[in-house]
Amino acid sequence: MKHKPGLLLKIVIAILLGILSSFILPIPVVRVFVTFNSIFSNFLGFIIPLIILGLVAPGIADLGKGAGRLLGITTALAYGSTLLAGFFSYFTTRWSMPLIIDKNSSFTSLETLTGTEISPFFSVDMPPLMTVTTALIFAFVLGLGIASISGSALKSSLSEFRDLVTVVIVKVIIPFLPLYIFGIFLKIAEEGQAVMIMNLFFKVIIVIFAMHILLLLFQYSLAGMITKRNPVKALITMLPAYMTALGTQSSAATIPVTLAQAKKNGVDEELADFVIPLCATIHLAGSMLKIVACAFAIMWMLDMPAGLDLFTGFIFMLGITMVAAPGVPGGAIMAAVGVLQSMLGFDQYAIGLMIALYIAMDSFGTAANVTGDGAIALIVNKIHSKGKKNKES
Q1: What is the reported pLDDT for 2?
Q2: What is the greatest pairwise CA distance in the chain?
Q3: pLDDT 10s digits, 346-363
Q4: Where does residue 167 rank: exposed (0-12), middle (13-18), buried (19+ CB within 10 A)?
Q5: Nearest to 52 by CA among 148, 146, 141
């Protein structure tokens, strides 16, 4: 198999080339890329509701299949861990951003970010089939309904629609993202905002990395308290899964390694076979942490309202929306775009910055996700073994 550059490397190259190209490309050429970005942004606006419907509905339907005690416990732990990561990220960034990032008077609105100095040659309107909110509600109704009636035909159709949406993400959106990011940073650099943006990226990445370490230490300390195991040894045992996720940037692709290491930590084999693949789909604590931190940082720079009341609803909804995000690099952020637009008011240029900032840390978020799966497996294993002993007695 030929080795292809990872998405992270492509995004980094696109950012650097975009900034450097602003010094040599004439305005008419810059407008060509701005035109492409305008069309691609409109396409994203069109496809996002379909992505939400295609990912969330079958994800909820899958969770309902064979619902039982262990499924409920695992799902509750995974969702609780994801929410905890979101609020931890919010309060940490809310405390740290004012200390490390100064608001700039020339960069305090979405209008300043998008600017009017460089406009596209033309634009192609692509009105979405439904709003983001409608897509979310429709996805919940379909998923819960199919789970309750065990509708095999509808579930099969939804699964095929999910495959179609995944193909669009993998074959269309992800390949064009580097060019889209290139255009965004070309325009930003041309309009004199590049230094502030890169300063934001560097500082936010440091904060996110530190939070990931603290999150994993907390997860395994909690698991160690419940299971009476050494949390440091358990975390070290899961390091191969962490390193594999750094390379693959995919929770799904790391499942075999995560399974093997969870079993080495003493998790029952059959239980691990159930919990680990499930958590690879629904436990996205690392991704939640990154999205919340990136969103708050951008909103801080734009002087947008970012109160706890706003982010509470956003975190709860994001935890559901990211369920069943495809196991491809950038899957979680693509599933989250709709919520960023509908609940936080992000426009397409802010979304572009969000995607670039998120993908700059994508592998670390995935690694935190899968490593945290091992902590949840330990807790579920303890609950399961205790239940078995009670039945036997």
Answers
A1: 39
A2: 80
A3: 887 788 788 877 877 777
A4: exposed
A5: 141
User: Which one has a higher pLDDT value, 114 or 159?
Assistant: 159
CB crowding 319-341: b at 16 or more within 10 Å, else e: bbbbbbbbbbbbbbbbbbbbbbb
Dig out the tokens for 32 from the structure. Answer: 């060509």
Positive or negative: CA dihedral 44, 50, 56, 58: negative
Confidence at residue 106, expressed as pLDDT on a 0 to 100 scale:
43
Q: What are phi and psi of 324, to 5 degrees?
A: 65, 25
SS (H, E, C) 221-276: HHHHHHHCCCHHHHHHHCHHHHHHHHHHCCCCCCHHHHHHHHHHCCCCHHHHHHHH
Hey, what are 150's tokens? 């065990």
- Return mean pLDDT, the chain: 79
207/186 Cα distance (integer angstroms): 26
Over the stretch 277-293, which tens digit does the pLDDT of each residue have?
A: 778 777 889 889 999 99
Where exactly are the structural domains of the chain?
Answer: 7-392
Question: What does each C-alpha distance from 97 to 27, 195, 288 come to in angstroms?
Answer: 34, 17, 18
Start-to-end CA span in the chain (Å): 54
Q: Is pLDDT of 9 > 70?
A: yes
CA distance 251 to 96: 29
pLDDT (0 to 100) of residue 234: 92
pTM of the model: 0.71
Three-class DSSP category at 380: helix
CB of 372 within 8 A of CB of 276? no
* CATH 1.10.3860 for the 7-392 domain, yes or no: yes
* Residue 115 reports pLDDT greater than 50: no
Measured CA to CA, the distance from residue 61 to residue 78 in angstroms comes to 17
Distance CA 213, CA 311 (A): 23
pLDDT at 230: 92
Identify the residue whose tokens are 């969330």: 56
